[in-house]
Amino acid sequence: MATIAENLQAVHQRIARAAAAANRAPESVKLLAVSKTFGADAVLAAWKAGQHAFGENFVQEGVAKIAELPLPGIEWHFIGPVQSNKTRPIAEHFAWVHSIEREKVAQRLNDARPPQLPPLNVLIQVNVSGEASKSGLAPGAERDLAGFIRGLPRLRLRGLMAIPEPTQDKALQRGRFALLRRLLLPLQAEDAAVDTLSMGMSDDLESAIAEGSTLVRVGTAIFGKRQAVNGER
Ligand SMILES: *Cc1c(COP(=O)(O)O)cnc(C)c1O
Protein backbone atom coordinates (compact mmCIF):
# COMPACT_ATOMS: atom_id res chain seq x y z
CA MET A 1 0.00 0.00 0.00
CA ALA A 2 1.25 3.46 -0.87
CA THR A 3 2.20 5.75 2.00
CA ILE A 4 0.51 9.09 2.69
CA ALA A 5 3.66 10.84 1.45
CA GLU A 6 3.53 8.89 -1.83
CA ASN A 7 -0.18 9.60 -2.24
CA LEU A 8 0.44 13.31 -1.68
CA GLN A 9 3.12 13.29 -4.32
CA ALA A 10 0.75 11.57 -6.77
CA VAL A 11 -1.98 14.15 -6.06
CA HIS A 12 0.49 17.00 -6.62
CA GLN A 13 1.37 15.40 -9.96
CA ARG A 14 -2.32 15.22 -10.94
CA ILE A 15 -2.73 18.89 -9.99
CA ALA A 16 0.36 19.89 -11.96
CA ARG A 17 -0.78 17.98 -15.08
CA ALA A 18 -4.30 19.40 -14.91
CA ALA A 19 -2.97 22.92 -14.38
CA ALA A 20 -0.54 22.60 -17.30
CA ALA A 21 -3.36 21.35 -19.55
CA ALA A 22 -5.32 24.50 -18.66
CA ASN A 23 -2.30 26.81 -19.07
CA ARG A 24 -2.34 27.55 -15.38
CA ALA A 25 0.50 27.66 -12.87
CA PRO A 26 0.42 24.63 -10.52
CA GLU A 27 0.80 26.99 -7.54
CA SER A 28 -2.53 28.59 -8.46
CA VAL A 29 -4.26 25.48 -7.09
CA LYS A 30 -4.07 24.94 -3.35
CA LEU A 31 -4.40 21.42 -1.96
CA LEU A 32 -6.63 20.91 1.07
CA ALA A 33 -6.10 17.47 2.62
CA VAL A 34 -9.47 16.24 3.92
CA SER A 35 -8.63 14.29 7.06
CA LYS A 36 -12.13 13.54 8.36
CA THR A 37 -12.40 10.11 10.04
CA PHE A 38 -8.60 9.73 10.03
CA GLY A 39 -6.56 10.12 13.20
CA ALA A 40 -3.98 12.64 14.28
CA ASP A 41 -1.24 10.19 13.21
CA ALA A 42 -2.39 10.43 9.59
CA VAL A 43 -2.47 14.24 9.73
CA LEU A 44 1.01 14.26 11.24
CA ALA A 45 2.32 12.00 8.47
CA ALA A 46 0.90 14.36 5.84
CA TRP A 47 2.30 17.41 7.65
CA LYS A 48 5.75 15.82 7.73
CA ALA A 49 5.43 15.33 3.98
CA GLY A 50 4.88 19.08 3.58
CA GLN A 51 1.08 19.34 3.67
CA HIS A 52 -0.15 22.25 5.83
CA ALA A 53 -3.86 22.76 5.09
CA PHE A 54 -6.40 20.23 6.41
CA GLY A 55 -10.18 19.95 6.08
CA GLU A 56 -12.57 18.57 8.67
CA ASN A 57 -16.35 17.95 8.47
CA PHE A 58 -17.32 17.28 12.06
CA VAL A 59 -16.86 19.82 14.86
CA GLN A 60 -15.95 17.55 17.76
CA GLU A 61 -13.58 15.41 15.73
CA GLY A 62 -11.92 18.45 14.17
CA VAL A 63 -11.49 20.37 17.42
CA ALA A 64 -9.94 17.30 19.09
CA LYS A 65 -7.40 16.91 16.26
CA ILE A 66 -6.58 20.62 16.31
CA ALA A 67 -5.85 20.41 20.04
CA GLU A 68 -3.68 17.35 19.51
CA LEU A 69 -1.63 18.88 16.69
CA PRO A 70 -0.31 22.36 17.51
CA LEU A 71 2.09 22.25 14.54
CA PRO A 72 3.75 25.36 13.11
CA GLY A 73 2.03 26.64 9.98
CA ILE A 74 -0.87 24.18 10.13
CA GLU A 75 -4.18 25.59 8.81
CA TRP A 76 -7.61 24.11 9.49
CA HIS A 77 -10.67 24.41 7.25
CA PHE A 78 -14.20 23.48 8.32
CA ILE A 79 -15.93 21.99 5.25
CA GLY A 80 -19.01 20.21 6.69
CA PRO A 81 -22.53 21.48 7.23
CA VAL A 82 -22.60 24.14 9.98
CA GLN A 83 -25.29 23.81 12.63
CA SER A 84 -26.03 27.14 14.27
CA ASN A 85 -25.49 25.69 17.77
CA LYS A 86 -21.93 24.65 16.79
CA THR A 87 -20.72 28.00 15.51
CA ARG A 88 -18.64 28.93 18.58
CA PRO A 89 -16.08 26.07 18.48
CA ILE A 90 -15.78 26.54 14.72
CA ALA A 91 -15.12 30.29 15.07
CA GLU A 92 -12.60 29.66 17.84
CA HIS A 93 -10.54 26.89 16.22
CA PHE A 94 -10.69 27.09 12.43
CA ALA A 95 -9.13 29.54 9.94
CA TRP A 96 -11.65 28.89 7.15
CA VAL A 97 -15.28 27.78 6.77
CA HIS A 98 -16.32 26.54 3.30
CA SER A 99 -19.96 25.82 3.88
CA ILE A 100 -21.91 28.98 4.73
CA GLU A 101 -25.47 28.99 3.43
CA ARG A 102 -27.43 31.03 5.97
CA GLU A 103 -27.28 34.58 7.36
CA LYS A 104 -27.92 33.28 10.85
CA VAL A 105 -24.83 31.04 10.73
CA ALA A 106 -22.70 33.85 9.28
CA GLN A 107 -23.84 36.24 12.02
CA ARG A 108 -23.13 33.73 14.77
CA LEU A 109 -19.66 32.89 13.41
CA ASN A 110 -18.91 36.62 13.24
CA ASP A 111 -20.08 37.19 16.81
CA ALA A 112 -18.06 34.23 18.15
CA ARG A 113 -14.79 34.96 16.33
CA PRO A 114 -12.23 35.76 19.07
CA PRO A 115 -10.87 39.34 18.76
CA GLN A 116 -7.22 38.20 18.95
CA LEU A 117 -7.61 36.06 15.82
CA PRO A 118 -7.69 37.41 12.25
CA PRO A 119 -11.13 37.48 10.59
CA LEU A 120 -12.50 34.05 9.71
CA ASN A 121 -12.17 33.29 5.98
CA VAL A 122 -15.49 32.09 4.61
CA LEU A 123 -16.92 30.63 1.42
CA ILE A 124 -20.55 30.43 0.40
CA GLN A 125 -21.69 26.95 -0.62
CA VAL A 126 -23.73 26.82 -3.83
CA ASN A 127 -25.77 23.88 -5.09
CA VAL A 128 -24.64 23.46 -8.70
CA SER A 129 -26.36 20.08 -9.26
CA GLY A 130 -29.98 21.25 -9.18
CA GLU A 131 -32.53 19.02 -7.52
CA ALA A 132 -30.11 16.12 -7.09
CA SER A 133 -28.49 17.80 -4.06
CA LYS A 134 -29.80 19.47 -0.94
CA SER A 135 -26.65 21.28 0.23
CA GLY A 136 -25.91 24.83 -0.77
CA LEU A 137 -27.82 27.85 -2.01
CA ALA A 138 -29.55 27.92 -5.37
CA PRO A 139 -27.32 29.66 -7.96
CA GLY A 140 -28.00 33.40 -7.75
CA ALA A 141 -28.94 33.37 -4.06
CA GLU A 142 -25.26 33.70 -3.09
CA ARG A 143 -25.36 37.40 -4.07
CA ASP A 144 -27.56 38.48 -1.15
CA LEU A 145 -25.64 36.35 1.35
CA ALA A 146 -22.35 37.82 0.07
CA GLY A 147 -23.71 41.32 0.69
CA PHE A 148 -24.72 40.33 4.21
CA ILE A 149 -21.31 38.81 4.96
CA ARG A 150 -19.55 41.94 3.73
CA GLY A 151 -21.24 43.81 6.57
CA LEU A 152 -19.72 41.46 9.18
CA PRO A 153 -16.31 42.73 10.36
CA ARG A 154 -15.07 39.42 11.81
CA LEU A 155 -15.69 37.44 8.60
CA ARG A 156 -13.81 37.77 5.35
CA LEU A 157 -15.63 36.56 2.25
CA ARG A 158 -13.12 34.70 0.05
CA GLY A 159 -15.32 32.99 -2.53
CA LEU A 160 -17.56 30.04 -3.34
CA MET A 161 -17.61 26.31 -2.74
CA ALA A 162 -19.55 23.45 -4.33
CA ILE A 163 -19.91 19.68 -3.91
CA PRO A 164 -21.55 18.50 -7.14
CA GLU A 165 -23.31 15.14 -7.21
CA PRO A 166 -20.79 12.46 -8.23
CA THR A 167 -20.84 11.62 -11.92
CA GLN A 168 -18.39 9.97 -14.34
CA ASP A 169 -19.62 12.25 -17.14
CA LYS A 170 -16.75 14.68 -17.69
CA ALA A 171 -18.86 17.18 -19.64
CA LEU A 172 -21.39 17.27 -16.80
CA GLN A 173 -18.57 17.72 -14.24
CA ARG A 174 -17.15 20.59 -16.27
CA GLY A 175 -20.55 22.24 -16.71
CA ARG A 176 -21.22 22.35 -12.97
CA PHE A 177 -17.77 23.70 -12.15
CA ALA A 178 -18.10 26.28 -14.93
CA LEU A 179 -21.33 27.47 -13.34
CA LEU A 180 -19.56 28.10 -10.02
CA ARG A 181 -16.76 29.93 -11.84
CA ARG A 182 -19.28 32.24 -13.53
CA LEU A 183 -21.03 32.96 -10.22
CA LEU A 184 -17.70 34.07 -8.70
CA LEU A 185 -17.11 36.81 -11.29
CA PRO A 186 -19.56 39.45 -9.98
CA LEU A 187 -18.43 38.80 -6.39
CA GLN A 188 -14.82 39.34 -7.44
CA ALA A 189 -15.72 42.55 -9.22
CA GLU A 190 -17.29 43.87 -6.01
CA ASP A 191 -14.60 42.75 -3.57
CA ALA A 192 -10.85 42.31 -4.13
CA ALA A 193 -10.57 39.81 -1.25
CA VAL A 194 -12.66 37.28 -3.20
CA ASP A 195 -10.13 34.93 -4.80
CA THR A 196 -11.20 31.35 -4.02
CA LEU A 197 -13.13 28.69 -5.91
CA SER A 198 -13.25 25.61 -3.67
CA MET A 199 -14.17 22.80 -6.05
CA GLY A 200 -12.82 19.39 -7.02
CA MET A 201 -12.27 16.24 -4.94
CA SER A 202 -10.43 12.92 -5.42
CA ASP A 203 -12.54 11.83 -8.40
CA ASP A 204 -13.04 15.08 -10.30
CA LEU A 205 -10.16 17.44 -9.50
CA GLU A 206 -8.99 17.51 -13.14
CA SER A 207 -12.35 18.83 -14.34
CA ALA A 208 -12.42 21.37 -11.52
CA ILE A 209 -8.93 22.67 -12.30
CA ALA A 210 -9.84 22.93 -15.99
CA GLU A 211 -12.69 25.23 -14.92
CA GLY A 212 -10.61 27.45 -12.66
CA SER A 213 -10.59 25.78 -9.24
CA THR A 214 -8.13 27.47 -6.86
CA LEU A 215 -8.57 24.95 -4.04
CA VAL A 216 -9.18 21.21 -4.34
CA ARG A 217 -10.41 19.23 -1.33
CA VAL A 218 -8.90 15.77 -1.47
CA GLY A 219 -9.45 12.98 1.05
CA THR A 220 -9.47 9.45 -0.37
CA ALA A 221 -6.58 9.94 -2.80
CA ILE A 222 -4.34 11.01 0.12
CA PHE A 223 -5.51 9.03 3.15
CA GLY A 224 -7.23 6.05 1.51
CA LYS A 225 -10.81 4.85 1.64
CA ARG A 226 -12.91 6.03 4.59
CA GLN A 227 -15.21 3.91 6.72
CA ALA A 228 -18.75 5.05 5.83
CA VAL A 229 -19.79 8.02 7.97
CA ASN A 230 -23.34 9.04 8.82
CA GLY A 231 -25.03 10.75 5.94
CA GLU A 232 -22.26 10.15 3.45
CA ARG A 233 -22.91 8.51 0.12
C1 LIG B 1 -15.15 14.20 2.28
C2 LIG B 1 -15.13 15.48 1.53
C3 LIG B 1 -14.15 15.73 0.55
C4 LIG B 1 -13.12 14.72 0.12
O1 LIG B 1 -13.69 13.76 -0.71
P1 LIG B 1 -12.78 12.63 -1.44
O2 LIG B 1 -13.68 12.10 -2.48
O3 LIG B 1 -12.45 11.63 -0.38
O4 LIG B 1 -11.59 13.30 -1.98
C5 LIG B 1 -14.17 16.97 -0.05
N1 LIG B 1 -15.07 17.92 0.28
C6 LIG B 1 -16.00 17.71 1.22
C7 LIG B 1 -16.96 18.81 1.55
C8 LIG B 1 -16.08 16.49 1.86
O5 LIG B 1 -17.03 16.29 2.77
Mean pLDDT: 96
The global form is globular
Q: Kindly state the percentage of residues in helix.
A: 40-55%
CATH H-level name... which superfamily? Answer: Alanine racemase
Number of strands: 8
CATH topology, by name, is TIM Barrel
Number of discrete helical segments? 9
**Overall domain count:** 1
Oligomerization? single chain
Helix-strand pattern, N to C? HEHEHEHEHEHEHEHEH
CATH architecture: Alpha-Beta Barrel
Low-confidence stretches: none
Computed Rg: 17 Å
Structural class, from helix and strand content? Answer: alpha/beta
Which distinct ligands sit in these coordinates?
A: pyridoxal-5'-phosphate
Distance N terminus to C terminus?
A: 24 Å
Largest sheet: 8 strands, parallel
Neighbour order of strands in the largest sheet: 7-6-5-4-3-2-1-8
Bin the strand percentage: 15-25%
List the helices and strands and how they pair.
Layout: H1 4-21, E1 30-34, H2 40-48, E2 53-56, H3 59-68, E3 75-78, H4 87-93, E4 96-100, H5 103-112, E5 120-125, H6 142-150, E6 155-161, H7 170-190, E7 196-198, H8 205-210, E8 215-218, H9 220-223
Helix pairs in contact: 4-5
Bound molecules: pyridoxal-5'-phosphate.
What is this structure, in a nutshell?
With 233 residues, this protein is α/β, with parallel strands linked by helices. Helix content is 40%, strand content 16%. It has a single domain (4-223), classed as TIM Barrel (Alpha-Beta Barrel).
Give an overview of the whole structure.
There is one protein chain. The protein has 233 residues and is of the alpha/beta class. The protein has a single domain (4-223), classed as Alanine racemase (TIM Barrel). Helix content is 40%, strand content 16%. It contains nine helices and eight strands. An eight-stranded parallel β-sheet has the order 7-6-5-4-3-2-1-8. The relative contact order is 0.16. The model has no long low-confidence stretch (mean pLDDT 96).
